[in-house]
Design brief:
105 residues; alpha+beta; elongated; two-stranded antiparallel ribbon
Length: 105
């Protein structure tokens, strides 16, 4: 006769390799038993990044003279550059301005 009782069961399910490839952050979590004597398994995605965070510029920033002079000075410095360089530099100085002037308040 067996003296040790095993009180666990192996809960299983199947997932397509295509799903795993599409959702690399796929995770599993065994939930507590409720009605059944089985643990429900929750499948979820830990994190999903759809790309870089979009750049935002709010209209009320245009009313700030410091912001306007910052953008004007930046555009003077990158004059003659391509549009990619102009946008990248404008975004950099805007993010710095937001960190200094907006988020500190």
């Amino acid at each position: 006769m067996r003296e040790v009782v095993t009180l666990c069961r192996l809960e299983r399910f199947m997932v397509s390799l295509d799903i795993i490839a599409m959702l690399p952050g796929l995770s599993l979590k065994a939930l507590p038993k409720s009605i059944s004597d089985h643990n429900p398994i929750m499948v979820y995605v830990k994190s999903f990044k759809s790309g870089p965070r979009p750049f935002k510029c709010f209209n009320n920033w245009m009313d700030d003279d410091r912001f306007n002079s910052l953008i004007t000075d930046t555009l003077k410095k990158v004059r003659g550059s391509g549009i990619g360089c102009i946008m990248r530099k404008s975004m950099e100085v805007t993010k710095g301005w937001v960190d200094r002037e907006i988020r500190r308040n």
